[in-house]
């Protein structure tokens, strides 16, 4: 062998893998570390794009696990309005690894339950998930009780899942300067009141993001040593940046950092993998064709193409799977099925609220 | 503060409107288990599957041609259709509103550690669930038109009749008296907001599995696997409760 590049497969070379083929012929982007079985309980969490993955898996007969289902009597559109069946538990979007760490540690009793509550017009909003109830909670007690239920759902999801798919979304966030609590969104947007003295902007750096992700993974694996983790990075650009930068380079910074951290963490653990949905949507080879005219939203065809790659690469690595064997009575609850029914609905993205404050 | 049903003239005529459950009321009347004084009682309705052939048209409940004969038979031919001014008191009986659906869904949900439900989510459930029931919408329309309506929903499933494990899992759920009272209160508030009065099933008739005690099942319930219908004695209990409530509302209005 003259050099290590000799004998590599065609996918290792740009010309054969990308340059000389149509975008739709680009394949083999992922060499999965482990097989995802149709019988696996799959938990999804993270930013908006994770919703697509959960829905696509459910639609393909995979066992997307809804650990906090709506009551069976609740209509699908109400369940969606109250954020049931959007993710595996009712955290709403988890944009940063710090938020993931907060949720996981709080749910497992490793961090104090935050006492901060936002109020508006007699209603109560959870700073960690301000849009989880369309009109907020009726009381502080109700809010805190709901959060305890959420913690139970997170613990249940973690302990029973075979795989967690987590989509990293943002590096930018807002936090309480005194308590250190990181919010789901900037106070004063979805809910709450912005206080320049109390609230601080954070643009997390790679080392902090990696540390938070590792800490969260540590808790997850302690609770469930067999749990596997699949990381993705959201290809959805920032709605707005508070970094002082133009939103486009701010997006590039944010996504680059997240992509790098995801890759490093996947490299460090055999039970963590990275699926390149981000690249499939954003790489120049795909010519931006999977974005809507606003160049931000991902069109359904893009999601479909991402998931085609997911299933194709799984099949290439591990062969096909028959129909899932589901024991009688082990089917998802109606709450589970809510998501499958709603798969064509828009994903829910609190970040979109920022648009209301853009002008 | 929820609105209250309108006042009832003390000797007004009564209409029992509903589905197959009204048969037990008829038997209770025939057995003189119900004392309505000098009030005349008229039945009006159709069996369950035919209920969807009853429509709201120009301020009245009108049967499709397909069920007209059935309605005529039940009403004794007195009313081809039914309007809010036709009687002084309407008792909606059974009428396709099945509280066990609500009770089992909510209680099973709340039994889970992750099953907490916000009051707004509960309200959304109750509002959708009640309003999808045709008779609920009829009752609201009657109340809007000034009628006095007491709504006696279908009874909880009968104890000792559920055969299969599947039926038991689906229809029975452990509950406490306080939990049942809370759920009845939610339904009652929803009815009051719609302008009529919901008559809850007396807790004395309910088991800890949220079923109706076996003594109120029909005499041939087990033979027919009929966990739905109840005895004339049960009907008498419920109608008496409805009449009593109507009387008290009337008395309050008169003060």
What would you say about this model in short?
The complex is a heterodimer of chains A (359) and B (255). With 359 residues, chain A is α/β, with parallel strands linked by helices. Helix content of chain A is 36%, strand content 11%.
Structure characterization notes:
The complex is a heterodimer of chains A (359) and B (255). Chain A is built from ten helices and nine strands. Chain A is α/β, with parallel strands linked by helices and 359 residues long. Chain A has one domain. A five-stranded parallel β-sheet of chain A has the order 2-1-5-8-9, sandwiched between helices. Chain A has a two-stranded antiparallel sheet with strand order 3-4. Chain B is of the alpha/beta class and 255 residues long. Chain B has a single domain, classed as Rossmann fold. In chain B, 43% of the residues lie in helices and 12% in strands. Chain B has helices at 22-30, 65-75, 99-111, 119-131, 134-144, 165-171, 177-194, 221-224, 232-254; strands at residues 14-18, 41-45, 54-57, 60-63, 89-94, 149-153, 197-198. Chain B has a five-stranded parallel β-sheet with strand order 2-1-5-6-7, with helices on both faces. In chain B, strands 3-4 form a two-stranded antiparallel ribbon. Mean pLDDT of chain B is 92; it is low at 1-8. The A-B interface holds A 67-68, 70-75, 78, 81-82, 89, 133-135, 137-138, 142, 145-146, 148-150, 152-153, 156 and B 101-102, 105-106, 108-109, 112-121, 124-125, 128-129.
